[in-house]
Amino acid sequence: MMADLLLTIKDLKIEGRAGEDWLPIIKGVDLTLHRGEVLGLIGESGAGKSTLGLAAMGFARDGCRISGGEIVFDGIDLRKASERKKRGLRGRRIAYVAQSAAASFNPAHKLIDQYAEVPVLDGKSRKTTQAEAVTLYRKMQLPAPEEIGFRYPHQVSGGQLQRAMTAMAMANHPDLIIFDEPTTALDVTTQIEVLAAIRDIVREYNTAAIYITHDLAVVAQMADRIKILLRGEQVEEADTRTMLAAPKADYTKSLWAVRSFTRPELPHASTAPLVSVQNVTAGYGKLDILRDVSFDIHAGRTVAVVGESGSGKSTVARVITGLLPPRAGQVVYEGQPLPPDYRARSREQLRQCQMIYQMADTALNPKLSLREIIGRPAQMCLGLKGRALQERVRDLLALIELEPDKYIDRLPGELSGGQKQRIGIARALAAEPKLIICDEVTSALDQIVQEGILKLLDRLQREFELAYMFITHDLATVKAIADDVVVMQHGRIIEQGPKARVFSPPHEPYTELLLSSVPHMDPDWLTTLLTARA
Amino acid sequence: MGVLWFLVLAIACSIPLSYVFRAAMAQVLPHDMAIAARDMPLTAAFGILVIAVYIFIATFAPLLAPYAERTVVGTSFQPWDSTHLLGTDRLGRDMLSRLIYGARNTVGIAFATTALAFVVGSLLGIWAALRGGWLDQGLSRFVDALMAIPSLIFSLLLLTIFGTSVLTLILVIAAVDATRVYRIARSVAQGVVVMDYIEAARLRGEGNWYLIRREILPNALAPLVAEFGLRFCFVFLTISSLSFLGLGIQPPMADWGSMVRDNATLITFGDVTPLLPAGAIALLTVAVNFVVDWQLYRASGLKEQG
User: Which residues of chain A have pLDDT under 50?
Assistant: First the structure.
């Protein structure tokens, strides 16, 4: 492993502009990378992972500047190198794979044309370049490698696009690739394919890589070494196996411990269901998204609805809330059928069912203060006014563990991601509902923050006898919080029942696939799994 | 040559003046606005200063003007002297006084018109975006049809039909301009109505009025404010051109557009007096656009953080 040094970063400092001032983002980080080595970079959002990754290319985002330290790539000092020289390196000797391949491809050009852009610029013939592209596509295990390059980005799936992007990064056999959360936006089942493809090709070409992610289990599969960042400072660095087995710093240990949150399972419900979805078929236009879906939600219990994206999970929520009237079937609330369209429901019926959204940024009106965001449902649904309303808002803030005096007049933009999600919870609670639908509420959050939100939801459930419908693709969350599980695929329910039964063998094949695709903290997990599947 | 030197001198003076004005605003205003004032570009300070002066003149016109708006106080076309600082017009009325009263009429009417166009246009636009469906289609196609007619000709037509009182003038121009505001408000609101917070508000049973007022309008305000400034200039110019054509503000009321027309003969004698109202229009237009540019820059979010 002690081959020649490829990249050395010493005491790197990067600052970001905040009005007139410059605030530190990276506060003196060292990093070394040898040829053919994969370094995993871990940290919460805002820890400076991406900034550090980009700095390895000698690049700072708009509004940021590299203010100190040195970056040496294969003997070239990137801080002193001219912009022209750096441009010559980028895409040729250093490549970058972004988180969202869909946003990084130009939708107006075919994949192979985008692949060929740099090589053709460098004087290779179009024909050889295309032949190479096909070879790489095959190595990346893309289906129909000869033809897939001639499709446009919207004609292939997210996982395929991410692999096509990696192939594009490999086009010039770079010495270093920076992967910035390449699988974060993908489903677990797709993630595995992408991970395996990336790992194999990096090994085959002996390319060094910096793999940025917040998912420990993923990085354990990919990296030789792991480096942990916290608020722009390095916390710890060690070989993957050492790091997994014996983390030293407290922060690292807390990262490792996050997934341990579980709660005692409730005995199976015998009472009448609170909400019952009965034989619902629904969809948009001519397309049926849901086909004959039925399940029950009981008071005080959590139903987790799991499945890949496109399986119809969120559509179920839209049917229950009345945003999408079903074509057939009905939603029954406490024995009474609910009007299919929310506009036909009474205020009382609307009050009973509230939603918490995945993206807190778009779920909270950025121009309203927390006082109004939380106060309005309480005012609307419970008819509170004046002092009583103010008291209620303060109580709710205290309930979600935000100090009322400090936060009540803030705007959502002045909160962190986790705090925003807490406000989303408070807004749902303000109406005193019986059912809360949580649509991927934790998937945009870091693991430590996720755990806080899950604990809060759990406490509130016990306090108020709430029923949750928890829509998620993250099986770790399901294992932590669910009482009952509904597994969905292509708009149908594959399997449903209490968590213990669904998660213990024998499984339906699809449930088996989902369960086995959840990455484990074991560095050999991916290899073992792929051998077992082959 | 004299005019050129005057312009250079005016620009040279306006720079330190704007600078002092900006510093003064940063001192006087409450905290949040003071920060905005401190960070604004000099052009914006200049724009605000000019607008403030115009508003001041329009408000206190009777006190500031040396003579009455409509009385004949001398012979026609008197040159500039100490009794009539800017001379007299075609009928012998004091030019300076009419210029000052003209600010009140032209700017006041333009403001009322733009405000009306905005209230109607943005409410309808947001409502259409919120409701969608046939209401949106109906309103939007109607607006498209109105916009297909050249606006000046359409206003002329309407004014010929309904007569040329100040009220009809305001209503006609507001109606024509509301179509433009409608399109902007609708497209901005379409971006807002798909947000989850709108869905959450709908699901708790909020009415259209609350949704428009509290949930959508605050998020659509920045582009609308910027548009307000631009639209104000257009309305202003429309009124002036209508007056120039004889269908706008009717004599003997003073307004800048008709003042240019009435005294146009003087231009052939090399006198700049008839161009002063035109200059007043130009200056206000430039000032408003400076402020609008600044608002657009702020709305783009580049300067908002921090």
Answer: 1-2
For the segment B259-283, what is each residue's pLDDT rounded down to a tens digit? Answer: 888 888 888 887 888 888 888 888 9
- How much is the pLDDT for B215? 92
Name chain B contacts of A377, Cβ cutoff 8 Å.
204
Contact pairs from chain A to chain B, CB under 8 Å: 60
Domains and CATH numbers, chain A: 1-91+194-252 (3.40.50.300), 94-171 (no CATH), 275-503 (3.40.50.300)
For chain B positions 142-201, those within 8 Å of chain A (CB to CB) are: 195-197, 199-201
Domain boundaries along the sequence of chain B: 60-77+84-299
Pairwise CB contact (< 8 Å): B203 & A354: yes
B204 at interface of A, judged by CB pairs closer than 8 A: yes
Q: Does A368 contact B218 at a Cβ distance shorter than 8 Å?
A: yes
Token duo for residue B21: 């004005």
Measured distance CA(A489)–CA(B263) in Å, rounded: 80
Q: Which CATH superfamily is domain B60-77+84-299 in?
A: MetI-like (1.10.3720.10)
Q: Hey, is the C-beta of A23 within 8 angstroms of any chain B C-beta? A: no
Contacts with A367 from chain B: Cβ below 8 Å:
218-219, 221
> Smallest Cβ distance to B204: which of A363, A367, A380?
A380
Question: Which string of b and e fits B225-246 if b means at least 16 CB within 10 Å?
Answer: bbbbbbbbbbbbebbbbbbbee
Write out pLDDT tens, residues B95-139. 889 999 988 888 889 989 999 999 999 999 999 999 988 999 999
The model's pTM = 0.78
- Burial tier of B198 (Cβ tally within 10 Å: 0-12, 13-18, 19+): buried
Model ipTM value: 0.76
Q: How far is A244 from A362, CA to CA, in rounded Å?
A: 36
Nearest to B109 by CA among B257, B225, B266: B257
- Which of A355, A367, A382, A414 is the best mutation test for B, with the most CBs of B within 10 A? A367
